[in-house]
Each structure stands twice: as structure tokens, then as C-alpha cells.
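S1.2 Input.
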Amino acid sequence: MSIFQRLRGIIKRHEPPIAERSVLTIGPGDACEVSMVTYQVIGRTLNERRKTIMLTLQDGADLRYLLIEDRETTVYSLYSPIDGRLDSITEVPMTLEMDDRTYHLEEQYNDTISSTGKTPFMYGGEQAVWQFQSDDRKLMRIEWQEGRFMLYEGEDILSADVEILRGSV
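S1.3 Output.
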């Protein structure tokens, strides 16, 4: 090897390292397997400050929502949309009764989100969230943004039951 080849090798600009993809970088075009059902990720709502994402999952005509919270450990919750209506953001109760199950308010917060793909809220902005839990560990989530409510019912999912399958993007 000549001295010029060595100098060229030293001076040559190296490729930047490829950023490792975390669970918070999953988005539209990827696939996700939850409890042995494979879903296509068609939308993503990111709350960067709280390190949470809500993925819109589609399996045929079935829509589900996977909430991923990156805390000490990664926590997963799978939700289904439910029909319901609230009249005002100021009238969200501390307890909800639905189908002989009582849900108690666990957490309420307002924060800024960003959205990509097909999501219940097509634009980012300020969002209010109420998270409820029943005595038998079922979950209820209410989201409000720009005058629109979304209601979800779901349950916590073991991390072993969730597998992220990356798309070709």
C-alpha cells in the first residue's frame, strides 16, 4: 500500500453511523405484531415530552390503537375505539360507568402532539388526555383536541406480546 493510498484513506470522509431505530421511531409503513395478530401501522401520534406514541393499527377493516410509553421499561396498551360522546371538556367525570364496569381517573394531562399518517387527529397541536382504570385492570382513554373527543377501551399488553416489524422504508 502506497503512502498516497494511506493518506487518501485517512482523509476520506467516513459515512455517518446509521441511527439505531428505537420503539419510538416506528411509524406508517411498518408492521407490528400484537398478541399474535399482525397489523399494518397506518398512523402515529407522538408526544415527545412524555415519550409516548399512539400507533394507529389496521388489520383489514379492524382498527386498533397501540399506546407505547417509554419509561423505566417500555409499557404497551392496546385500545379499541368506542362510541360515546361528551358534551364539554370541563365535564369529564372522575369516574365512568360503562357495561357494569366502573373506571376511575388515574391521570389527566394536556400536552402538544405531532401526527403522521392516518390518525384520529390529523394535525398536531394541544391535546387533553384522561386515562382511567377499572378494578379489574381494564383501561379507558379519552382524548380531546380542537373540539373533538375520541374514546378508547383497552388493556395493558405484556412486552413479550409485542413485536415491531420494520417496513422497507
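S1.4 Remarks. Helices lie at 3-11.
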